[in-house]
């Protein structure tokens, strides 16, 4: 994860046109550019089939509604397939990035009226297979984000700052701790296993309601695993049996090392048995649905 070299997608959809990435421009007065005033979504695509689309679209609409951006995400549905076809990814593993900003208007702190939202969408290839063989080393730091982390805002300063701190130390993720409790990662949800019970932070304003997180919670039910939506204290991480990250880009990735204040507070050799069970079940679910 740490040294991923990415290239720009060749083609992007911007406000009704399909354009080469280096020909796609927005105004400097776009409120996304100027104020980070927008919502985004990332959808995984397996074999050319978008996965868990309904959950992603519902969350996207909920985010736009929460910040009063008048846009119907159903308008995007035909574009999902089109962007995969136009990008020659209709048979591949990929991700679709979508962002809707409030649009172009003179800079004000209040929401301007009668502004047309700006829409950006593109597909890009990513490696989704083999996540079950990856082992992540992570760190813990203070969660300094705003109090509406449930809204997938494009303003990600605190997230990118946290992730960069991990990246600088060649770590895969930074787990965020608010008032002593782990909320989630900079771009992933996090689960812990202790005494055969699976723990993850409850939904609410302090985490993003991860779509992969929800799939994993449902898989726990299918597998008869005990699950508690309860936060784990940063100080307790040293006593857990297993840790794993979930998310569109990491799916279910085992954590084998955790650093807190410069000390390694958790270490295992491999993914734990419950993590492995969930990974196998997840692979089965994806195969059945895509
Ligand atoms: N990140 N928590 C945060 C803060 C996230 O940004 C993400 C996703 C998740 C996992 O959510 P999901 O399972 O729905 O992908 C949890 C995306 C992929 C990103 O920012 O690129």
TrEMBL record:
GO MF assignments: catalytic activity
UniProt GO cellular component terms: cytosol
Record-linked InterPro entries: Aminotrans_IV (IPR001544), Aminotransferase-like (IPR036038), BCAT-like_C (IPR043132), BCAT-like_N (IPR043131), Class-IV_PLP-Dep_Aminotrnsfr (IPR050571)
UniProt keyword list: Pyridoxal phosphate
Gene Ontology annotations of biological process type: amino acid biosynthetic process; carboxylic acid biosynthetic process
Keyword Transmembrane helix recorded: no
Cofactor requirement: pyridoxal 5'-phosphate
Family of this protein: Belongs to the class-IV pyridoxal-phosphate-dependent aminotransferase family.
Protein name (record): D-alanine transaminase
Organism: Arcticibacter pallidicorallinus
């Amino acid at each position: 994860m740490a040294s991923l070299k990415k290239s720009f997608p060749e083609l992007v959809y911007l406000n009704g046109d399909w354009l080469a990435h280096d020909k796609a421009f927005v105004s400097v007065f776009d409120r996304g550019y100027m104020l980070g005033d927008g919502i985004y979504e990332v959808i995984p695509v397996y074999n050319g089939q978008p996965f868990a689309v309904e959950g992603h679209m519902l969350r996207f609409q909920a985010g736009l509604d929460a910040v009063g951006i008048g846009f119907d995400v159903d308008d995007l549905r035909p574009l999902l397939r089109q962007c995969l076809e136009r990008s020659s990814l209709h048979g591949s593993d990929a991700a679709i990035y979508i962002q809707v900003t409030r649009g172009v208007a003179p800079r004000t702190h209040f929401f301007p009226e009668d502004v047309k939202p700006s829409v950006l969408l593109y597909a890009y290839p990513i490696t989704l297979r083999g996540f079950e063989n990856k082992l992540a080393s992570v760190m813990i730091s203070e969660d300094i984000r705003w109090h509406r982390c449930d809204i997938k805002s494009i303003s990600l300063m605190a997230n990118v700052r946290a992730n960069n701190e991990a990246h600088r130390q060649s770590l895969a993720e930074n787990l965020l701790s608010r008032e002593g409790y782990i909320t989630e990662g900079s771009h992933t949800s996090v689960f812990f296993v202790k005494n055969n019970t699976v723990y993850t932070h409850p939904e609410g304003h302090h985490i993003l309601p991860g779509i992969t997180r929800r799939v994993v919670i449902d898989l726990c039910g299918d597998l008869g695993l005990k699950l508690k939506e309860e936060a784990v204290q940063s100080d307790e991480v040293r006593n857990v049996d297993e840790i794993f990250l979930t998310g569109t880009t990491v799916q279910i990735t085992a954590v084998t090392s955790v650093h807190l204040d410069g000390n390694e507070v958790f270490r295992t050799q491999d993914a734990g048995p419950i993590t492995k069970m969930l990974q196998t079940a997840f692979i089965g679910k994806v195969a059945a649905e895509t």
